[in-house]
Amino acid sequence: MADMKDIPDGTPPAFAYLLAKAENYLEVGSDAYRAGDAFKMPSAEWPQPLLEAVGRGMEQICRFRGLSRDEPFENLGVDGFYALLATLHFKCGKQMLVGERGADFLDAMYMQHRMTGQQIVLYNLVPKPALPSPGTD
Known about the structure:
Helix content: 25-40%
Number of domains: 1
Distance between the termini: 49 Å
Strand content: 15-25%
Radius of gyration: 16 Å
Mean pLDDT: 90
Largest sheet: 3 strands, antiparallel
Number of helices: 3
Number of strands: 3
């Protein structure tokens, strides 16, 4: 697990909160985390692939991913990213496409904590949607 003293200089204060929550999630698992969460997140109604994406996101937070364009979240997709941040009680205020990497888009996500108002910008690498072939409906 990450250590709070390993948080890179210049990291937004909200990231320490994310790191503490992610470490707890990985230590106790999704069911116990939900039982102790004020909003009962992650939702027990979510399908297994979405819960797996939340777990991958928590692991990446512990590796300080998502803080920069150079080290974005990966393999979460759009739905997984939103589920991860909902689990951590954040909502998206603004989303901007800030780059491309091969077959992926790089999004900057301006997030705000639902209760405290803490803000953080996180970066998420997502697959570009498949375009229909010419001549198909």
